[in-house]
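dumping this here before i forget
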Amino acid sequence: MLDCGSGSTRFLEGKVTSLENFSAILTHLHGDHYNDIINIQYGSFSYHNQKRLEYPVSIYLPATPKEKCKAVIEEEDAFAKYKIIDEKSEITIGDMQISFCKTDHPIETYAVKVQEGDKNIVYTSDTSFSTAEKLAEFAKDTDLLICESSLLKEHGFPEINSHLTAQQAGIIAKKAKAKKLMLTHFWQEESIQKYVNEAKQEFFNVIVAKEGQVIDMPVVQKER
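structure:
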C-alpha cells in the first residue's frame, strides 16, 4: 500500500488475509496520507493475538516529524516491523524493487518508484513544482505516473507552492516522457474534469484516480 489515508483501509475488507505479507509505505506524515495506519496496526495486533497472523506487517516511513514517527513506531497495539526510509533507500517486496526521491514539501516527503520486471509506476506523493526536473528524471519513461494535482491554475496560485497544479502535473509527465498520467489528490469542491482539461494542455494521455480502480499494465514483449 502506498500511503494509508483516511478511509483507505476499508478496501482491505477487514480480512486477516489482507494483512498476510502486508507492507505499507508512508510517503510522509501528514494525516491525509497516514491516518489509517492505526487500523492496520490494531488489526495486526488482534489477528496475531488470535493466532491467525503469523508474520508482522511491514511499515516504511520517514524519520520526521520525529514525534509523529515515534508515535507510529511505539504504538503498543501492533504486530508490525518498521523501517525508516530516505532518498537512498531501496526495498524489495516480492518481485517489486522500490526506490525513493525526496520531494519539496513542508515536511519530509518521498516520491516512490515501484519496478517489477520491465514495468514501473511512479507516485509523486505531495510536492512543489520546484522539484519538477528532479521528479521528471526519477519518473523517466515510466509506464504510469501517479501525480498529485491539488491545485488549478485558474485560481491564480503562484508557480512555486507546496502542491502542484494539474497543468504542472502535465508538464512533469511530458518532461518524463511518461506513457500515462493519473491525476490524484483533488479538492472535492472542484470538478474533476477541470483537472483533466488543465493537465491535457500539456500532456495527452490523462486519467483520474478512482476508488477501487484497477489499471491493466500488460507485459510488452521485447523484440529479439
